[in-house]
Amino acid sequence: MSLNCIRIPxxxxxxxxxxxxxxxxxxxxxxxxxxxxxxxxxxxxxxxEVKVGQKIGDSEAFMSMPxxxxxxxxxxxxxxxxxxxxxxxxxxxxxCDGKQTVSEDIKPPxxxxxxxxxxxxxxxxxxxxxxxxxxxxxxxxxxENKTPIxxxxxxxxxxxxxxxxxxxxxxxxxxxVINGIKTIQNILKxxxxxxxxxxxxxxxxxxxxxxxxxxxxxxxxxxxxLYPQGAEKVIAYNATKRxxxxxxxxxxxxxxxxxxSTVAFLNRYFKTGMPLTWRRITIDGDAVKSPCNVxxxxxxxxxELLKFAGCEESKTRKVLTGGPMxxxxxxxxxxxxxxxxxxxxxxxxxxxxxQTNCIRCGRCINACPAGLMPTELEKAYQQKDADRLxxxxxxxxxxxxxxxxxxxxxxxxxxxxxxxxxxxSENN
Amino acid sequence: MEKLIVSPSPHVRSGMTTQKIMLNVIIALCPxxxxxGIIFGLRALFLILVCxxxxxxxxxxxxxxTKKPNTIGDLSAVVTGILLAFNLPPTxxxxxxxxxxxxxxxxxxxxxxxxxxxxxxxAIVGRIVLALSFTGAMTNWTLPQAFQITDAVTSATPLxxxxxxxxxxxxxxxxxxxxxxxALALILGGIYLVIRRIISPATxxxxxxxxxxxxxxxxxxxxxxxxxxxVLLGAIFMATDYVTTPITFxxxxxxxxxxxxxxCVIRFYASMAEGVSFSILIMNILTPYxxxxxxxxxxxxxxxxxxxx
Lengths: 428, 309
Prior knowledge:
The structure holds two protein chains of two kinds.
Chain A: E1 20-21, E2 27-31, E3 41-42, E4 49-50, E5 55-58, E6 67-68, E7 73-82, E8 88-96, H1 114-123, H2 136-140, E9 151-156, H3 165-172, H4 174-188, E10 192-198, H5 202-211, E11 218-223, H6 232-240, E12 255-259, H7 260-272, E13 278-284, E14 292-297, H8 302-308, E15 318-321, E16 328-329, E17 343-347, H9 363-367, H10 374-382, H11 386-391, H12 402-406, H13 413-426
Parallel strand pairs in A: 1-14, 9-10, 9-12, 10-11, 13-17
Antiparallel strand pairs in A: 2-8, 3-5, 4-7, 5-6, 7-8, 13-14, 15-16, 15-17
Helix pairs in contact in A: 3-4, 4-7, 10-13
Chain B: H1 18-40, H2 42-65, H3 76-86, H4 94-109, H5 122-133, H6 135-138, E1 141-142, E2 154-155, H7 158-161, H8 166-171, H9 183-195, H10 202-217, H11 222-227, H12 231-238, H13 249-269, H14 276-293
Antiparallel strand pairs in B: 1-2
Helix pairs in contact in B: 1-2, 1-3, 1-9, 2-3, 2-4, 3-4, 3-5, 4-5, 5-14, 9-12, 10-12, 10-13, 13-14
């Protein structure tokens, strides 16, 4: 059995562009909510001097992790901030002094066992860098008495069009990737590692295969270049042939899935103690003249980056954070880059699509990696039938967008699924 | 700069549209259109044109009267018109054909809510209504032009006479409805649709296999039963209509087998010579039930506690 998936154009325009280091900006705005979970409270006040790597926000909550300053300078404002996913939190605006003085607190963590690893990972401010932003320390802090973890799946599929930031990480810092994997593998005593890369990145597959050739516990898996190969449940299945069931996390099946850039960052953190203060980001899209990969401080404004990449503002009608299949539209160009942004895409005006009635062609059913029937879900949602939606398992929809992508009638099936999920939870 | 557009993902769509699907079906019908022109002459082509044109007219009028946006751009009316024409004898008066397209487009499709909402195949119902209303004109089979020396000669459909050879059946040099006789042209169209991934080969294959097997078991000539009458036209173009047939693979298999069985039962044991239209109509009606038992299986789903289907 294999899971349904679809072919989409890859458009990896920036795959051969070496990462450019972006100069220190004049100001950064660092939101207190950059991950999945509870947002942080600011630890600094207006007027405070901050240094690179200094913790400026934290939370007592379980599902949270600290936020650090990416620059050195002075806090000029702490404002309310509405993120593009509709969540509210505080946002710390820092005027940079350009010196990038590193905080005295920065020192490599001492990691000897699982507890010290989890603590260090939390302090690094690390969350999943692939886009979802799940707190990494929670992911690693599984209960080994319940299900022992025997597989570490490194997600390097990068199945969304345009994005090449994970690919550049593998090509530019392969040692960080491998050493990060080995540290986690050794401390957590995980038997097998699967590095899963789509076969449209042959160089990365070759490089990592040759570097891990001597280690039989680490396998590099070449996945066919199909969407959504990088979805957590899909990649877990394709690596281990184990199905992550309804309501489960991969750890319930003995699997941990971590994004490749996340492990590479963790390795750098283990070496230097510098928390997550910058990330690599792909800037592309049909409104961008010179697509590129840039290394940017967290909190830099998207407008500045788009200008840097030669974006034609007059033609830009849509700006996305993330890929075109699952990325989110921003409503304000001054939105800051956060930890989970792997790409910024500036797109020209959409073609006007003609929507027709559903013609029951079944393409959405053949495309759904979760084995759902999007057209039936749409009907059930239109009838506001919560029982039927539950029965059709709308909760298993991972919002990959494949159904909307393939629909010849141009129905907004993925959008409807999201609305249907909300409807079901409201009517429980 | 203008305001940014904010919309839910995905932000890209495939190039496939309803209109393109219908256009592909029209392209797939072309070999059979050409074949009908060669076999039955210009009048056959005119009849196809009349059916396609009146279909568009009926749909436009219906949308005007009901104050709906005009939907003829999706080209599904053209497909229905051509398919209905394929089910008519080449001598049928044009006004009767127009009544057929009225039934197909207005009564079967538009009144149920337009494209995607009809439960039965419009062209099939159009044909059945015409066959019951104008039985004489609808069974006025002419021999192919290739054989004609003087005027058109009426003859029976080969299903009633059973004395044609395979090559004639394959090339369509027999009497019959204008689009159903040339097996070669229909198969070419079917292969095109499968290659372009417009239809699943499951329905036609299981339809034809069932007809062949059933005929073999009851001692009839399987190849003859497949090549003659409307089996190929029905299997390739009518039983694969998205709207009125099951949506999943196994549903399509059941649909094909059901059509094959009903066709043979009517052919061998009922008083009518041909059973393809009725078999597809009956299976159309069963489609919601087939859909119910052949639902896609969600990956990793836990058994739901609740009820009913």
